[in-house]
Amino acid sequence: MNDSVYLVRAIALAKQGLYTTDPNPRVGCVIVKSDQIVGEGWHQQAGGPHAEINALAQAGDKAREATCYVTLEPCCHYGRTAPCTEALIQAGISRVIVAIKDPNPKIAGKGLDQLRAAGIEVTHGLFVDEAKILNLGFIQRFTLNRPWVRCKLAMSLDGATALDSGESRWITSPAARRDVQRWRARSSGILTGIGTILHDNPSLNVRYDELREQIPELFQRQPLRIILDQKLALPEHAKILSLPGSVLIICEDSSHPKAGILRNLGAEVISIPLLEEKLDLALLMNVLAQREINELHVECGAKLAGSLLQAGLIDELILYIAPKLMGDNTLGLFHLLGINTMKDTIDVVIKEVRAIGDDWRFTIHFNKN
After folding, report:
1. Does the pTM exceed 0.90?
2. CA of 11: how far to CAs of 28, 122, 126, 152, 186, in Å?
3. Max CA-CA distance within the chain?
4. H-assigned helices in 186-256
5. Three-state DSSP class for 164?
6. Beta strands 189-193; 95-100: pairing state
7. Would you please indicate which residues are annotated as catalytic (active-site) residues?
8. Rg (Cα) of the chain, in Å, rounded?
9. Distance in angstroms (rounded) separating the CA atoms of residues 91 and 359
10. Position 66 pLDDT exceeds 90
């Protein structure tokens, strides 16, 4: 039996939940008997059946003495749904191949132990990297108590993000802007600073009319929109307050009269402590992790981007480079302090370069060793 083939298929199935499972992980499952797939499924939506349950339903009686391939350790506790380990045991599965253990401490190896105790042969550790990539945010939320932070920025070929006046529409092509909608749609939350709100009055929502073929209407959701607004300068007429979806405003004093006004407009307003007279960004990430934010999508200006980067809080940069030159009177990508010599510079790892319309998209990870 070729375990690799079937686990690769399970990973492909898990990818079908890329935009829909939040805050749950993306999981795929394949059930094989006599070297034939008899059932397969993926987790589609939080509160709905897990991947194993969908695969078992398709397999029916053929699941007895079959092998189950699943990208993430089966759950063994009662949450929104019943434990998958019990369903696998009751179905008569004889062998379970798991890519990675579940980082949730309620499971974290206990599911595998439960299966072994029932006499099921269990193997894990195949295609670990591929399985982890599917759930970077879910894993990081449980291991580091913060989301996977993905910052989206766009610049011209000569490194400008806007003209000196602040004008930046549009640096990138329509294809690149459509691509951004996919990154927004897979995220749990979208973060920006008050400066971006005051200057651009953005919507920061997912424009699903551009993603009709990828995400059925049944699964369309708006990520939580998060605004860092230390002094509560958000205008009451801001576009972000008038659109569907939840808005969370982070300030230094949530008892301020302006907070009540914003709450009446439908926003949630909370305060977090300051660090060196600014909102504590590391603490903010812990707060968002407790709110089940797996992947945090950031669209902001150079100051906030620089602060996040120098705090070691950006995991991934999605950088679009447009084939245009904008000259000297422009604004830059990051506002970074304290870089005076080459040894102070920040190393990056370029993971992927891809053409998107007329632009180039760089996927960049940061070396935090």
Report:
1. yes
2. 6, 18, 11, 26, 17
3. 70
4. 194-200
5. coil
6. unpaired
7. 52
8. 23
9. 51
10. yes
